[in-house]
């Protein structure tokens, strides 16, 4: 029991240290993450609204034809029709579990979360513009249309929710998280290949259940990487290179990606990014002026207090500690006034 208690105490200590080291955020980063979550939630909500609109519009096709119609699809000829719609949601869960494990064990977890939500949110904004623009008949003959209010109805697998596949979007984004943030060793590569295998299998399950046309699945595979690398480009140039959101980008030390990185590697990254150790952008002019100022301070000899007092005593102007004029000051003033008066009288006699 003592051994178990010691192990539990060590594990708890490790978790606490990791939270303080890798998960702790400052006020600016917390505000940023709250804004990211809000933007993601708003985009996902309006994507649901537009999917409801598409479902109601697709019913017009059935009403006009008098029966349900599925568009011809090449993959439908080679992939048999199955009625296991729950498997599409199961593959979502299978993608979320390893991705969540990667985020928890990553040395920069909030960076992964930010990139994931921003990419997913951007792709959802794109889906808002496509899902209800062109209404197509649903490929699944037993789907259900949305009858209620489009703003308050939340459902899955509705009719008309076609272009493009939201399930496949989740598959691809989670796969891109692994390909970008997985450990650079054989374990990371093996898990990345496994996750991509799950994404491909999930895409085939979506087609086999006739939840989407093949074009919907392919568009998800095209759009999700575009959203992911757009966010990555923006993040690099406007967050990493600018030294912003340091507790998200570099929670431990500027330039350190992993706890195992050496100090030399961190220094090399800072040089490549043009960042100082405190995260501010590299300014060669300021560094040069600071170095010159420090050099001047080093070269100038220090003046001792005794020497300063001696010089002031020779000059005859030693200030008193209380700040009031002392006898030396009065002598200097008297001599100065006498000299000025003598010069004035001499000048007047010459004239």
Name its key features.
mainly alpha
- Measured between the Cα atoms of the first and last residue, the distance is 115 Å
Percentage of residues in strands:
under 5%
Radius of gyration: 36 Å
- Apparent shape: elongated
Secondary structure tally: strands: 0
Low-confidence stretches: 317-351
Helix proportion:
55-70%
Brief rundown of the structure:
This protein has 13 helices and no strands. It is mostly helical and 351 residues long.
Write structural notes for this entry:
Mean pLDDT is 83; it is low at 317-351. The protein starts with a helix and ends with a helix. 26% of the residues are buried. By secondary structure, the chain is mainly α. It has helices spanning 2-23, 27-65, 74-78, 86-105, 109-131, 166-181, 186-208, 214-240, 246-249, 263-273, 284-299, 305-315, 327-350.
Task: Indicate the topology.
Elements: H1 2-23, H2 27-65, H3 74-78, H4 86-105, H5 109-131, H6 166-181, H7 186-208, H8 214-240, H9 246-249, H10 263-273, H11 284-299, H12 305-315, H13 327-350
């Amino acid at each position: 029991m003592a051994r178990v208690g010691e192990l539990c105490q060590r594990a708890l200590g490790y978790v606490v240290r990791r939270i303080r080291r890798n998960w702790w955020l400052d006020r600016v980063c917390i505000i940023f993450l709250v804004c990211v979550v809000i933007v993601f939630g708003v985009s996902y909500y309006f994507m649901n609204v537009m999917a409801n609109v598409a479902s109601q519009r697709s019913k017009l096709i059935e009403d006009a034809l008098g029966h349900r119609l599925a568009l011809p699809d090449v993959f439908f000829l080679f992939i048999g029709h199955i009625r296991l719609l729950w498997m599409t949601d199961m593959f979502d869960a299978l993608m979320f579990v390893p991705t969540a494990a990667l985020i928890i064990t990553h040395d920069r977890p909030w960076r992964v979360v930010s990139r994931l939500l921003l990419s997913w949110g951007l792709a959802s904004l794109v889906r808002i513009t496509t899902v209800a623009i062109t209404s197509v008949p649903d490929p699944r003959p037993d789907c259900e249309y949305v009858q209620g209010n489009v703003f308050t109805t939340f459902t899955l697998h509705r009719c008309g929710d076609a272009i493009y596949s939201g399930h496949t979007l989740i598959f691809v984004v989670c796969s891109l998280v692994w390909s970008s943030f997985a450990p650079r060793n054989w374990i990371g590569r093996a898990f990345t290949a496994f996750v991509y295998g799950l994404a491909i299998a999930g895409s085939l399950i979506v087609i086999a259940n006739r939840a989407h046309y093949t074009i919907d699945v392919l568009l998800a595979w095209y759009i999700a990487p575009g959203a992911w690398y757009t966010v990555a480009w923006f993040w690099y140039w406007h967050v990493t290179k600018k030294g912003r959101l340091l507790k998200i980008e570099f929670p431990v030390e500027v330039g350190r990606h992993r706890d195992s990185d050496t100090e030399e590697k961190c220094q090399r990254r800072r040089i490549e990014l043009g960042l100082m150790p405190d995260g501010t952008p590299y300014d060669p002019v300021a560094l040069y002026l600071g170095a010159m100022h420090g050099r001047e301070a080093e070269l100038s000899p220090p003046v001792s207090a005794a020497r300063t007092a001696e010089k002031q005593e020779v000059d005859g102007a030693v200030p008193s500690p209380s700040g009031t004029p002392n006898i030396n000051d009065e002598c200097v003033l008297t001599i100065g006034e006498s000299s000025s008066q003598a010069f004035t009288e001499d000048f007047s006699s010459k004239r």
